[in-house]
Amino acid sequence: MSKFVFLCMLLLLILAVGLTLTVLIIGTCLQAPGDSFPRLVQFLNFPEYRLFVLSGIVISVGGLADSLGKVSSQALLDFLQAASVENLNGASGDIHISWLGGELLHVLKNFARNDRVIIPALKVFIISVPVY
Questions:
Q1: How many Å apart are CA 29 and CA 47, to the nearest integer?
Q2: What is the rounded distance in angstroms from the CA atom of residue 67 to the CA atom of residue 54?
Q3: For a FRET experiment, which of 29, 91, 93, 114 has its CA 20 to 30 Å from that of 85?
Q4: What DSSP element (H or E) covers 100?
Q5: Is 39 helix (H, G, I), strand (E, B) or coil?
Q6: What is the pLDDT of residues 78-124, one digit of tens each?
Q7: Which residues contact 26 (CB under 8 A, 6 or more apart)?
């Protein structure tokens, strides 16, 4: 098992425990993609989680369920638009989207021979280009 796959699985376990606690505390159902993806994309604000979260979003965009792909791509697009607007308004902080191209390149390199990831990664790139 590669180090990247192990780290992805570990992150998913951590997220699952965190989401379970969040459900208990907040009381919302995070099993529905419409509830969970807008919250999960907020982890893109933290550089140490970006690659793993973006990998999960890319895989979800190319998922077998069309509704999951729409929800995940819309959540990412909403996040990127909000970050872009905050930068234009001169908001302080580390929120910027200049990292997106590099992180997508890492996803493409990590899954170089997997069409189920490559095609959705290119789709994410296409939908995010107008945001730049």
A1: 27
A2: 18
A3: 29
A4: helix 100-110
A5: helix
A6: 988 887 766 555 554 445 567 888 888 999 998 888 888 888 888 88
A7: none
Structure tokens at 44: 């893109």
Task: Write down the domain spans for the chain.
Answer: 33-131
For residue 65, give the 3-state DSSP assignment: coil
Longest dimension (CA), the chain: 44
Cβ proximity of 11 and 52 under 8 Å: yes
Candidates 38, 46, 3, 44; CA nearest to 19 is 38
Element (H, E) at 73: helix 66-88
* pLDDT value, residue 112: 87
Taking the CB of residue 60, how many other CB atoms lie within 10 A of it? 21
pTM of the model: 0.67
**48, 29, 47, 27: which is closest to 37 by C-alpha?**
29
